[in-house]
Amino acid sequence: SVRTQSYPIRKIMELVEKIADKQTGIAQRDWKIWCNRLEQCLFQTRDSKVYELFNEMNLNPLSPLRQEPFRPEYAKDNSTGEGRYYEMVLDKIEKSLNLSTLKNL
């Protein structure tokens, strides 16, 4: 039912918001460590059924993390090494969670 599906969807979206809030304050010197931890943590969620729900809706729940307001200034896009590294990590995460071919939110 929609009601039982909305709870895990809400939890994932809250997680994305928390990630964005945290990562915008990460010091530049700690950025690669943050990216690696983000990859490890999200990879651990790969067995979550919530990703199946997003696949059914054809939506990538992680896509907001690519947007400039969700990123620190020094990694706001792919014009910096930090930005390119972040996007590479997001690509790996999305591929491992079968989200890479889904539409952005």
Principal-axis shape equals globular
* Sheet with the most strands: spatial strand order: 1-2
Helix and strand run: HHHEHE
By DSSP (H or I, 4+ residues per run), the number of helices equals 4
Fraction of residues in H or I helices: 55-70%
- Please state roughly what percent of the residues sit in beta strands, choosing from under 5%, 5-15%, 15-25%, 25-35%, 35-45% or over 45%: under 5%
Structural class determined from secondary elements: mainly alpha
Low-confidence stretches: none
For the terminal residues, how far apart are their CA atoms? 22 Å
Radius of gyration: 14 Å
For the sheet with most strands, the description reads: 2 strands, parallel
Overall average residue pLDDT: 92
The overall strand count is 2
What do you see in this structure?
The chain is mainly α. The chain has 4 helices and 2 strands. The chain has helices at 2-23, 31-43, 50-57, 81-96, and strands at residues 59-60, 103-104. A two-stranded parallel sheet has the order 1-2. α2 runs parallel beside α4. The longest helix has 22 residues, at 2-23. It is globular, with a radius of gyration of 14 Å. The protein starts with a helix and ends with a strand. The mean pLDDT is 92.
